Amino acid sequence: MGQDAFMESVSSTVGVFQCKIYLLLLGACSGLKVVVPSHTVHGIRGQALYLPVHYGFHTLASDIQIIWLFERPHTMPKYLLGSVNKSVVPDLEYQHKFTMMPPNASLLINPLQFTDEGNYIVKVNVHGNGTLSASQKIQVTVDDPVTKPVVQTQPSSGAVEYVGNMTLTCLVEEGTRLVYQWLKNGRPVHPRSTNSSSPQNNTLHIAPVTREDIGNYSCLVKNPVSEVESDTIMPTIYYGPYGLRVNSDKGLKVGEVFTVDIGEAVLFDCSADSYPPNTYSWIQRTDNTTYVIKHGPHLEVASEKVAQKTADYVCCAYNNVTGRQDETRFTVIITSVGLEKLPQKGKSLSPLASITGISLFLIISMCLLLLWKKYQPYKVIKQKLEGRPETDYRKARTFSGHEDALDDFGIYEFVAFPDASGVPRVGFPCG
Ligand SMILES: *[C@@H]1O[C@H](CO)[C@@H](O)[C@H](O)[C@H]1NC(C)=O
Ligand SMILES: *[C@@H]1O[C@H](CO)[C@@H](O)[C@H](O)[C@H]1NC(C)=O
Ligand SMILES: *[C@@H]1O[C@H](CO)[C@@H](O)[C@H](O)[C@H]1NC(C)=O
Ligand SMILES: *[C@@H]1O[C@H](CO)[C@@H](O)[C@H](O)[C@H]1NC(C)=O
Ligand SMILES: *[C@@H]1O[C@H](CO)[C@@H](O)[C@H](O)[C@H]1NC(C)=O
Ligand SMILES: *[C@@H]1O[C@H](CO)[C@@H](O)[C@H](O)[C@H]1NC(C)=O
Ligand SMILES: *[C@@H]1O[C@H](CO)[C@@H](O)[C@H](O)[C@H]1NC(C)=O
Ligand SMILES: *[C@@H]1O[C@H](CO)[C@@H](O)[C@H](O)[C@H]1NC(C)=O
């Protein structure tokens, strides 16, 4: 052990210096140093393996002897070949397999077989004024390289979230001493409560599957001489619908209420995350009755065609594989904001009202003039508000449902409409 550790710690160049230190400390040093770059060498079956060895000494030498021995656990060391000066004496049993070119002590093994796995011992003897001796041991492993792995999923048709399980199996045709690792989106898969691996890690079991398990999976297989990753596969996981939303191209959305200007046609769009894609249906609610008005993700509502000022709709998303559905209710309010506040044309007003009106008009005009001077942009907006075309106003009146638009004057606040029945509907059938 002491000898080995010492040999490992010295490099070929500083070794002599260190040896001198050891010589002083221990009072004995061979003056001969044998160094191997690596004490473990991984070889590929069928190929040549080169075991490099370096040695050096500082003494006059008449003979240099190099001996290679091979040992396997629990067996006697076997003589492979040896040399004195430049002449090699092989063991006749292995003479075509091992090659050495003395004084170079490195050994070439060709071809390498599984039976060549074990420890190789090199011993160097230098004979001069006395005999110096040193040895090193190299562990050699022999492996077949890994062929590209293939990942199989079971079931191949996919699994439904929270219901189905999935097993990924990594298959490798050739290779020895395989170590498997699973990668998801390029990062190692860490064991979670929902997944487990076989002892060799060549299968990954996910039970039950969830939406979070969706990703690009691959299997990385390593051994001492190679490392190959499979193609990525994306297991099919059916899920959803999630995050059902209704949006419109126009109009103002506050919570579940869309405020739409009269005369506009509005396109509503229903979307939810789901695999496979949802089927959508649109349901209109009138009092206690509901009926399906359209299938598909879009619904166009022409505000002129809406008889009332408000209309309730439901968008229903259904995933025909998971068998799950979600629905969202929303209210459309047809509005004519600001128009109903204008005085009605052609309606007779009392003289007092006229005078008050004219006075107010003058005061407001003065104020506006002052304001205009100070903040010119304000006026532009004001003009826009007051200068709405009369046709717009007439339209608004037709739909207001009142004889006098002044009845509608006030501050409006729209809130989500409660369900008419007051009971939340469970399992409403999506048409
Ligand atoms: C090895 O070489 C040395 C000098 O080069 C020589 O003195 C010695 O006799 C040789 N030994 C053998 C066994 O040939
Ligand atoms: C030993 O021989 C190999 C080639 O067979 C060569 O690469 C290596 O450098 C040699 N070592 C020494 C110490 O000459
Ligand atoms: C041989 O070694 C002895 C003691 O180890 C020493 O006295 C002697 O000088 C050495 N001879 C030569 C030629 O190095
Ligand atoms: C999924 O795995 C769980 C636990 O391993 C098991 O109880 C369940 O029956 C499996 N489901 C299917 C559909 O195989
Ligand atoms: C299997 O994988 C786990 C975690 O990735 C790892 O800790 C374990 O050593 C692996 N087992 C084998 C036999 O490679
Ligand atoms: C999986 O790979 C595909 C194609 O390479 C890519 O479009 C997709 O975004 C990847 N998915 C993830 C979750 O990285
Ligand atoms: C709606 O149904 C409730 C009971 O389910 C009933 O009391 C109410 O009169 C119905 N309203 C209309 C307008 O049909
Ligand atoms: C689910 O709906 C799609 C159309 O969105 C259809 O192509 C598919 O066949 C349906 N699958 C099942 C199992 O009903």
From TrEMBL:
Sequence ranges assigned to domain Ig-like in this UniProt record: 149-234, 235-331
Primary localisation category: cytoplasm
Gene Ontology BP annotations: cell division; centrosome cycle
Transmembrane segments: 352-372
UniProt membrane topology term: Single-pass type I membrane protein
SMART domains in the record: IG, IGc2
Superkingdom of origin: Eukaryota
Record keywords, A-Z: ADP-ribosylation, Cell cycle, Cell division, Cytoplasm, Cytoskeleton, Disulfide bond, Glycoprotein, Golgi apparatus, Immunoglobulin domain, Membrane, Mitosis, Repeat, Signal, Transmembrane, Transmembrane helix
PANTHER family given in the database record: HEPACAM FAMILY MEMBER 2, HEPACAM FAMILY MEMBER 2-RELATED
Known role: Required during prometaphase for centrosome maturation. Following poly-ADP-ribosylation (PARsylation) by TNKS, translocates from the Golgi apparatus to mitotic centrosomes and plays a key role in the formation of robust microtubules for prompt movement of chromosomes: anchors AKAP9/CG-NAP, a scaffold protein of the gamma-tubulin ring complex and promotes centrosome maturation.
Name of the protein in question: HEPACAM family member 2
